[in-house]
Amino acid sequence: MKKVKKILFIFLLAIVSIFVAIILSLSPLAKYLIEKYDAKYTGREITLDFVYVNPFTGYIYFNNLKIYEPKNDSVFFSANGLSAHVAVRKLFSKTYEIHNVTLDHPRGIIIQNKKEFNFDDLIDRFSSNDSTPVPNKAPLRLSIFSIKINDGEFYYLEKQIPINYFIKKVNIESNGFRWDKDTMVTHIAFLPGIGTGNVNGSLTINLKNLDYYLNATIKKLDLNIIDQYLQDLTNYGTLRANLDADVKAKGNFKDKEKVTSSGIMAINDFHFGKNLKEDYVSFDKLKVSVNEVSPKNHVYSFDSILLIHPFFKYERYDHLDNVETIFGKNGANVQAARVDNTKFNLIIEIGRYIKAVSKNFFRSPYKVNRLAIDSASFMFNDYSISEKFAAGLSPLSFAADSIEKSHERVTCFINSGIKPYGKLAVAFSINPKDSTDFDLQCQLQNVPLAMFNPYVISFTSFPLDRGTLEFNTQWHVLNGVIKSNNHLVLIDPRVTKRLRNKDTKWIPVPLIMAFIRERGNVIDYEIPITGNLKNPKFHFGDVIIDVVENIFVKPPTTPYRLKVKNVETEIEKSLTLKWRMRQDVLEPNQKRFIEKMASFMEENPDGFISVYKEQYAAKEKEYILFFEAKKKYFLTTNNNRVNSFSSADSEMVDKMSVKDSLFITYLNKQTNKKQLFTIQEKCAELIDSSIVNTKFNQLNKRRAADFISFFKLKDVEKQVKFSADKNVTPYNGFSFYKIEYKNEFPESLLKAYRKMNELNDVLPRKKFKKEHQKYIEAL
């Protein structure tokens, strides 16, 4: 028995030794064969630290796997470890089963150059060139179960645009696929390589017909990759935003319209503009809540679409505008990218996809339970004229509930403040089945006429320093046929002194006012519109009648109108002192009023006044900036020195146009920067802001000194109290001193108030008594 046991032990030891020998020899042999024949069979170099192969259990492990680019020492793909189990016994029945495929910390790089990818050679090498079907050929029985990727890192480089993006912490788990089943389920999670956010989701694919089901959750995903694609469409500009989403979708990879989706998507903290500091478009959140969207089935059902605190700034320059300077004239950059088939641009493709899935929207029974815009700001700046014009709508709100094609009417409301002054209210009702059937009501109130001075000065040379615009319109359109009434009222419009400048054209506005302004110092016109949307007809009968009436009716009322004007002047100049741009000494008529005021203080020792300095700093500094830039140009071109700059030279510089071609050429040479689009920006580059601020402060000191000098002559300066400087946008378009009387009021002022109340009750002004009174109270 001992002998038999010994023989059995030796036999078993030999068997084990053979197994160990096979394993020990097969592993280095596998490594040797892989590294020797890698280029022959793959066209690429492959290196490994070591390989472990167990033919008895079917376990395979590759350590530190690296696959290189063809004929290059750059790594295409690498992994710390690759392991799998092969069902060895089933190989004999021509069934290939691989279990538990695991990749530890894989790192891959995809490089695209036009339509070529760095893996095209692998596709070509392993794709069958023989498309001839083989009759009765048995299907390949290949199954891979349980695929797992741990802590992956994958890069995408596009050379043309270029794009440099990567994701990290990639973890993928899949049940794999069976040769006799069509469905594959995959779970994926990753983080963006740069910025915030994470993505988690599952994807189920039918490998036979390419149907899919997607369930994805995205939290604060940085959209840096969108900014990179945007660089291909723009001349300059930056974008930043992040994405939240919780969506479910099912569809087919072959048919982009065959998709049904639901869920919530939100774009947060969106900023797009000239640079990181200056936005052209921004919003806090755009949230879309989808009940169901199915383009193929003509279903568009949204629970809500909400836009929170959007901001949009549109600017006009001497050449193009801020949109065209970014995207090219008429969107030339976008058009070029759209027709260039050699490049892939994600933004263009997203746009095409949205267009494809939404083309049936208006032909479908669409539904949006709530559509709203909250706290919007829309700004408009015009630099194409001699001075900057700025206006805006803020805060603007838009609301529309139950937008549904099956409803008879859909109604929406817009309410907004107007910057710097005014209000806007719009009510709009439309038949969702017919866009030529709608009602519109719009009301514009309390808009100062002086706000439009940049245009009025440029085209007439006569600024306005008083007046309010109100406008009401009502449209009823049925089958495209218009029935509209439009009511325009300009209350107390007043033209001030002409500005003589080479920038401005000349139109005799005072003469025109004599014809269009009515006896009550208002312009009140009704302009009906009829016809249809394609050929509207404007009826100016009321305008013509009023002009003719003014020619014949106004002359007899001239004494009344002069009396009103004198009383208004008495009140206004007793309560306010207006300063023209860059004016630093009082004009003769202003001096007379200040002398009268000083005499009143001398006669009333217990009385005193408070003077509130309301400064139109933005506009004053713009005028100073222009003057200093033109002065520097004048001194340079005339070889003058600053100490030889005379008052005649100052007047010549003041009248010089900022749009003068030689001056602009000088600015362009001095400020050779691509992103300076306005005269203001170029002048600011030439003249330091500290110089402008110093000149502005000196201007205000000279004004205050000249004002108080008249009270010092009467030794009553202690009865005058100045407030701190206040920077505002004045209603009447000029810096001014607001004067408040304490204890005693001048009898002339009280008398003027009483007289004005009487005049407002007379027929020509009675109709707009409230509006006239508002202005007096505002003073």
Shape: elongated
Low-pLDDT segments, ≥5 res: 758-766, 775-779
Largest sheet: 24 strands, mixed
| Broad structural category | alpha+beta
What does the radius of gyration come to?
40 Å
Q: What oligomeric arrangement do these chains adopt?
A: single chain
* Ends distance: 127 Å
- Mean pLDDT over the residues: 86
The proportion of strand residues reads 35-45%
How much helicity do the residues have? 25-40%
- Counted beta strands: 31
- H/I helix tally: 20
How would you describe this structure to a colleague?
It is elongated, with a radius of gyration of 40 Å. It is an alpha+beta fold and 779 residues long. It has a 24-stranded mixed beta sheet that branches. Strands 27, 28, 29, 30 and 31 form a 5-stranded mixed beta sheet that branches. Residues 758-766 and 775-779 have low confidence and may be disordered. Helix 11 packs across helix 18 (747-760) and helix 15 (661-670) packs across helix 16 (679-686). It is built from 20 helices and 31 strands.
